[in-house]
Amino acid sequence: MLETLIVLAIVLILTSTVGFMAMRSLEKAKSTGAKTQIDSFCIALEAYYIDCGNYPTTEQGLSALFKKPDTEPTSDYWNGPYITKNVPKDPWGHEYVYENPGKDGQPYAIISYGADGQEGGEGKNADITSWEN
Predict the structure, then answer these.
(1) Which of 15, 48, 74, 102 could lock onto 109 through a cystine, CB 3.0 to 4.6 A?
(2) H/E element holding 129?
(3) Could you write out the DSSP letters of every residue in 9-42?
């Protein structure tokens, strides 16, 4: 009976260790996924710029990459869609933030505010941005 309890304790310790490692890997995968999506948006924005001569406005947002904008400035040269489906939410279920102009003289900014959906933070709550990506 004592041997069985010892074996059960060892199995529980190993299982909890594996579970903890899996959770850390899941958070890292979400962060990597957000970086990859932001990189894809950046490539699509460059194609949009080449066709239209400007980046979408903040009001038009990233959805201008999937559907031709209705608001000014519009372009007769829009040749999209530039992404294969409508703009997804970030891996934590929050909307990506798009700004035009971007930070520090950048033409645009794309931001995921991480797990907490708030600006700033560390670890899984850290912001993921197009200019630091």
Answers:
(1) 102
(2) strand 128-129
(3) HHHHHHHHHHHHHHHHHHHHHHHHHHHHHHHHHH
